[in-house]
Amino acid sequence: MTGAEDEAARWWATAVSHIEPGSIELRDRPVQDLIGSASLVDVIWLLLRGSLPAPRHAALLEAALVAGVDHGPQAPSIAAARMAATCGVGLNNAVATGVNMLGDAHGGAGQQCVEMLTDVTALHAAGHDWDRAAREVMADWQSRSRYLPGFGHRFHPVDPRRGPLLDLVRRAVADGEVGGDFLHAALAVEEVLRRRREGRRPVPMNIDGATAVIYAELGFSAPLARGLFVLSRSVGILAHAWEETGQGRRNKGPLPRGVLPARLPQPEDA
Prior knowledge:
Elements: H1 3-11, E1 17-20, E2 23-26, E3 29-30, H2 31-34, H3 40-49, H4 55-67, H5 76-85, H6 91-99, H7 109-125, H8 130-142, H9 162-174, H10 181-196, H11 207-217, H12 222-245
Antiparallel strand pairs: 1-2, 2-3
């Protein structure tokens, strides 16, 4: 190997994969040993963490990924992908359009919730009871934003995904598979909100909060909570984009042509 080749090899060195003629290794495991024996969830864990997950950990991760795949065409990421699919950009670009919509306001709450729950668990470890730790962290978050990430939903009085996900975590805690601190932190935040909003519409934990509990209990960092959500939601984005390509529309806009206003508002009308 020449000096330049050696320098290039060091430049691109990675522990994730190693490729040589006739050889593909993922985290030092030959891909042929994984094919047929490891699930996609196993391989996601392997590539991110460097080892294969315990079966119960893999099941928790899979449950979180399944829960987040889709939330209907009104979701901005899916709506954008469906519109892009009618513009002649190709399926891969339609999917990329949807994925690129997953930002702080739409798609980032899971990451933010892991950060918030991490703050709660830190205060609890420092000697606060769960209620006090939750109240102090909530006050700090609400001094910067009117929204608490992972709690409340525009459409669902109670997010139907919350219960099944938390039940899985509870069973994993009872069996000693995960520690449970992040579950306790999330339930403490939820209880504080319940007391504050007594007599008004509740703001229970939503999908972002429930999956944040799982990702944090499994030891994933906050940024990876967003990355894993992107992986999950990309499945729904792909399905919607593919369905839209078969419907024969061109240049689909946000409203059907028949309900567009006859005259668009002018600046002086605003």
